[in-house]
Design goal:
elongated; TPR_TTI1_N; ARM repeat-containing protein; TELO2-interacting_protein_1; TPR_TTI1_C
Length: 1125
């Protein structure tokens, strides 16, 4: 203890020495310097040194500091204060900073009243200037900050001692009088501060006033101005952004002000008087007496008037509750809870706005401390707050449809968020009101309707690709890759945040039982409503039920047995929703008038049901699979996307690997649904598109089961042949059947393995030495056998046949003839066991037996045969695209049916007339398709087509081919040439043209023969330069005709005359690389004729070796152009 007492004076003396080294020269300058402004720099240095000395001592050992050291330091400063107007602002700021240290750590609560009053005026006038006078100089931000810090420290120091009421109610001391200007300056700094730091220091100063002052009359006097200034800061528009820390501090200070002035404890006497007045009902006498009393006297009348004004101020100040910052919302919550708790009776008229604000900023995500009071805790203490919460929630509900129509998205989101918070609070407090539940459902539905009507409709593309059903790769994804549904309602990007808030409200509103009741209420009038109202109710019901299933856990079901009834009710409501969805899906194929949004919701409901039921959903596929697939052909892109996602979800939920397996596994359901519609002529474009998709996905496996469908299609064709587009859609199904049917490995006949016959013509084999040797050996054997026969003696005429004996059929025929010549009367009347009366009937019986023994065709083969047979009647259709499709069908199916010639060749005979007539079709693309079909038939039927092509060639096919060539050549630039004839070389009278020379025998002048060099003119190449060239219709048709000619030459027997005519027409193009196949086909039949034709036209080179000398002839070499040596 002795060490401490001895050490303290030492540290004090050391600190005093430091002060003296600065205070002495500072005092000399303050007292003796005539020009204060000239010494300002030196004075500023000394004042800063004193501030640093005090700051260092505060940080090291503040116990050394006391009022005496403060007085010693203040002596030179006091002289400087007399001339503060002559010093620069920096010097004044340094003096204020030093005074703050003296007040805060030196004088503390021992400062004299006179000095406190003087300093109050000095700080106030330094910050804002002398009242009634214009500011002489600008006060920097730093000076204002130091001024408010010093002012706050001074008010804190003098509060407990000086700011006390006088003995008489109307009297005041000097400190209270000086406090008025200080508070005014402080309030001006709060509202008009040049920087947030100035505002924050001013708020600290104001807080010091209301926390240190114990005089209620003084605080009541400054209350109106204080509340008004703080309200001005809090109620500023959002455009004038106030920093969050200023708002938070303002709310804290306003709470302190109201609690310190109007808390129930502070004015309990006035509240008791009001209670007594209410009981005695003496309100008439009291106001008159209160009006004559001073304004600062705290009376019931003053309380009524003050609370009325406070309510108006709070209505403006609490607009800050819409601020998005979490710290501001937390400050608002604490402010409202504090007033509801501390001023429950005094501010009873403000309960509604305080409760509403507290509910709006309630943040359930943040964990609240157990020591903090919440609104629910206050509602448990004060029941009237519970009624206020319920009334506030009801008002929010009925105003939601109106607010949701606002153009400000922030207002919409705030309204939805408020209802969510209010509903959670009501649920936590156990508030269960039928009025609230009804209002909630109606408000949600009306709000969704308003949003849907007010939002811009999304762009819908009306065009859809005909093949989009079967080429969509999205139908083969697995479960983890399934995409989510895009939003059906509120899909505009402008209301994306509002949609998220509404979805969050639906997902978290009430308990699962309450959500189920709301969904049931929505479904109640669903079938009777229409338009947007029906869509909104439908969507809300589905979202509510989906939420109930997501929030229900199996553990809750096991623990709470009372939930079984709720689960049954939940299942009943969902079943009703699913039934309505199934009816919507079924009506799509009947009528296209439904709004696409309600159909999209129905698809989502179906997918959700499948995801819940898993494999138990498979029986439902009978009713929903076909309707869902029909949406793949919808002209609305959103519906197509929903249908793809729905099929993926159903496939994954029901245990299928992909949609293809789903469709294949349930093909019988779909085919049955389609067949029923076709049989009743209930045919829509979606039916044919779905059938095409179904056939393409399943492949050849489904073809054998489509015989009834094909029959129904042809029946429909007979009834709707006047509708070209519809007929084309039906034939698209037949084309798909053929395309998939030819891929089947079951086209071969049952019980046999017929090999496909190759009709490709082969050229004569060259003679080799072995062939010559074999021929000579056979000739020698024949000569030897002839000699041996001549050497044998002659024999009599044979008495029995020379052959080895007749076959069984010949024996049976002979017996039949013998019986006919020598009939047996005993067997005339016998019918059993005897021979038939008519030999033709026996032959017919044998043919029947052969047909029975012949293997029957497979169902796929029979179906393709039927399609090909029935398609011939529509090749004369006026629709070119249909004719082209049918010809492609013939080209596709012919190679598949060719192995069974007994069944195929009659089909060729049947379709030949209508197919061959199409080569002269006025539409070039149809004629091209006809050429390809005939080429396919040639490859499949072979020589069976020989007589038909021979007859057709003479009837005009040759003329048609020459006309096609003429049209193809017409558009090209043809060089002029001498002579006549198409596709030939012409003599030019010995003139050299393009170095084209050939050796030709001619008659000499003496009647002999000699070889002379003559010039040839090149024939026109087929690669002319026309407007479109090879891409013109004429050139494409010429290519197709050459392809047909190639097929005829390769697979069909052609007589010599027809061959020569073909060669004459096509010889001009044989030199082209792309005609190599045509040239090979011609050479297979007669290579010499082809060479000669090319030789005559200069397309082959002459003989290099010199021929043997021939009497009367001479030879010489010539060059042939275009021929490589």
């Amino acid at each position: 203890m002795a060490t401490t007492t001895t050490a303290t004076p030492g540290r004090r003396n050391e600190f005093f020495k430091q002060l003296r080294t600065v205070c002495v020269p500072l005092s000399r300058l303050a007292l003796q310097s005539p020009d204060k402004a000239a010494a300002a720099k030196e004075i500023f240095t000394h004042v800063e040194s004193l501030s640093e000395i005090w700051a260092a001592q505060v940080s090291s050992d503040p116990t050394v500091l006391d009022e005496k050291l403060a007085e010693y330091t203040f002596f030179p400063v006091s002289h400087l204060l007399r001339f503060h107007d002559q010093f620069p602002v920096r010097v004044v700021e340094a003096i204020i900073k030093l005074l703050r240290f003296l007040i805060q750590y030196g004088w503390k609560q021992t400062i004299s009243e006179d000095l406190a009053v003087q300093l109050l005026f000095f700080f106030s006038f330094t910050i804002s200037g002398t009242p009634g006078q214009a500011k002489k100089r600008h006060v920097p931000e730093e000076t204002a900050v130091e001024g408010f810090k010093a002012l706050g420290a001074l008010i804190t120091a003098i509060g407990p001692t000086s700011l006390l009421a006088s003995k008489a109610p109307g009297e005041e001391n000097e400190t209270v009088t000086a406090l008025g200007p200080a508070i005014t300056v402080t309030l001006d700094g709060i509202t008009d501060g040049v920087a947030p730091t100035v505002q924050l220091e001013a708020l600290e100063c104001l807080q010091a006033v209301y926390t240190t002052t114990r005089n209620q009359h003084v605080l009541a006097r400054f209350l109106p101005g204080t509340v008004s200034s703080l309200t001005r800061v809090l109620a500023r528009p959002l455009q004038q952004k106030t920093q969050r820390r200023v708002l938070v501090r303002c709310l804290l200070v306003l709470s302190i002000v109201l609690v310190n002035v109007l808390s129930d404890i502070k004015i309990r006497g006035i509240l008791k008087q009001i209670e007594m007045e209410d009981k005695a009902k003496t309100d008439d006498a009291q106001p008159s007496g209160g009006a004559e009393k001073p304004q600062t006297e705290l009376t019931p009348a003053w309380l009524r008037a003050t609370t009325a004004q406070i309510k108006i101020a709070l209505a403006a100040a609490l607009k800050v509750r819409t601020h998005e910052a979490l710290d501001v919302q937390s400050a608002v919550s604490k402010f409202c809870i504090s007033l509801l708790d501390e001023c429950h009776l005094s501010l009873a008229n403000c309960q509604s706005i305080l409760v509403e604000s507290a509910m709006m900023v309630e943040n359930e995500e943040n964990e609240r401390s157990m020591l903090e009071t919440s609104l629910q805790d206050l509602a448990a203490i004060h029941p009237e707050l519970g009624d206020c919460i319920q009334a506030t929630l009801y008002n929010w509900l009925i105003s939601l449809p109106r607010l949701i129509q606002s153009n400000d998205e922030r207002i919409k989101q705030l309204a939805v968020r408020n209802i969510l918070r209010g509903s959670k609070m009501a649920s936590a407090m156990g508030i269960d009101s039928s009025t609230l539940n009804d209002s909630l459902g109606d408000s949600l539905r009306d709000s969704i309707v308003a949003l849907v009507k007010g939002s811009k409709p999304s762009k819908v593309v009306g065009d859809v690709d005909e093949n989009s059903l079967s080429t969509a790769t999205d139908l083969t994804v697995s479960l983890p890759n399934i995409q989510l549904y895009p939003p059906v309602l509120l899909d505009s990007e402008g209301i994306k945040s509002t949609r998220a808030e509404i979805t969050k409200l639906i997902a978290n509103i009430g308990s699962p039982a309450q959500q189920t009741k709301l969904a049931a209420a929505m479904l109640g009038g669903l079938r009777d409503s229409e338009g947007v109202e029906q869509i909104a109710s439908y969507w809300l019901a589905f979202e509510l039920l989906k939420t109930t299933y997501n929030s229900t856990s199996d553990m809750e079901d096991l623990v709470d047995m009372s939930s079984l009834d709720e689960n049954r009710y939940q299942e009943q409501v969902f079943q009703e929703l699913y039934d309505f969805s199934a009816s919507i899906l079924a009506s799509h194929s009947i009528s296209q008038d439904n709004d696409w949004r309600i159909e999209a919701i129905a698809l989502e409901v179906t997918a959700f049901a499948a995801s819940r039921m898993k494999e138990d959903f498979r029986p439902e596929l009978i009713d929903v699979l076909y309707p869902v697939t029909t949406f793949l052909g919808s002209p609305t892109p959103q519906l197509r996307s929903h249908a793809i996602t729905t099929l993926n979800v159903i496939a994954a939920s029901c245990g299928y690997k992909n949609v293809s397996e789903l469709v294949v596994g349930n093909a019988d359901y779909m085919v049955n649904s389609i067949s029923l519609r076709l049989n009743t002529f209930d045919i829509s474009p979606a039916s044919t598109k779905v059938l095409v998709m179904l056939i393409r996905l399943t492949g050849p496996r489904l073809i054998p089961f489509l015989d009834d469908v094909v029959a129904a299609i042809f029946a429909a064709l007979d009834n709707y042949h006047g509708y070209p587009v519809f007929v084309e859609s039906l034939f698209s199904v037949l084309s798909e059947i053929v395309t998939q049917g030819v891929k089947s490995d079951m086209l071969l006949l049952e019980g046999s393995n017929p090999q496909a016959v190759s009709h490709l013509k082969r050229g004569p084999q060259p003679l080799d030495v072995d062939y010559i040797v074999d021929t000579l050996n056979k000739r020698a054997e024949r000569t030897k056998r002839a000699r041996e026969e001549e050497a044998e003696p002659p024999q009599p005429h044979p008495k029995k046949p020379w052959g080895p004996g007749k076959t069984e059929e010949a024996s049976q025929a002979k017996s039949l003839l013998d019986q006919l010549e020598n009939p047996d009367p005993e067997e005339e009347g016998e019918k059993d066991g005897g021979l038939p009366d008519d030999p033709s009937s026996a032959l017919a019986t044998r043919e029947d037996e052969e047909k029975k023994n012949q293997p029957s065709n497979t169902p796929t083969y029979a179906l393709l045969t039927r399609v090909l047979t029935l398609s011939q009647h529509y090749l004369t259709s006026p629709t070119p695209t249909l004719r082209k499709s049918l010809l492609d069908l013939v080209a596709t199916v012919s190679p598949a049916l060719a192995p069974d010639e007994n069944a195929f060749l009659p089909l060729v005979h049947t379709v030949w007339p209508v197919v061959v007539a199409r080569i002269k079709d006025p539409e070039p693309f149809v004629a091209i398709a006809a050429c390809k079909a005939l080429g396919s038939m040639c490859e499949a039927a072979g020589d069976f087509m020989a007589s038909r092509f021979k007859q057709e060639w003479g009837d005009g096919m040759a003329k048609w081919l020459r006309g096609i060539k003429r049209e193809a050549v017409k558009g090209r630039e043809m060089p002029k040439r001498t002579g006549t004839g198409a596709g030939r070389a012409f003599i030019t009278g010995g003139k050299k043209v393009d170095d084209m020379e050939i050796v030709l025998p001619i008659h000499g002048p003496n009647g002999g023969h000699q070889l002379s060099l003559k010039q040839l003119v090149s024939t026109t190449s087929s690669t002319g330069s026309g407007a479109l060239g090879r891409f013109s219709q004429a050139h494409q048709l010429w290519d197709a005709a050459l392809g047909l000619v190639t097929a005829i030459l390769k697979y069909v027997r052609v007589d010599d005359e027809m061959f020569d005519e073909i060669l004459e027409v096509v010889v001009d193009v044989l030199h082209e690389p792309e005609r190599r196949e045509l040239k090979e086909a011609l050479e297979t039949i007669n290579a010499d004729a082809v060479w000669l034709a090319l030789y005559e036209r200069g397309r082959v080179k002459g003989i290099k070796s010199m021929p043997r000398a021939v009497k009367g002839f001479e030879f010489e070499f010539v060059r042939v152009p275009g021929v490589v040596a």
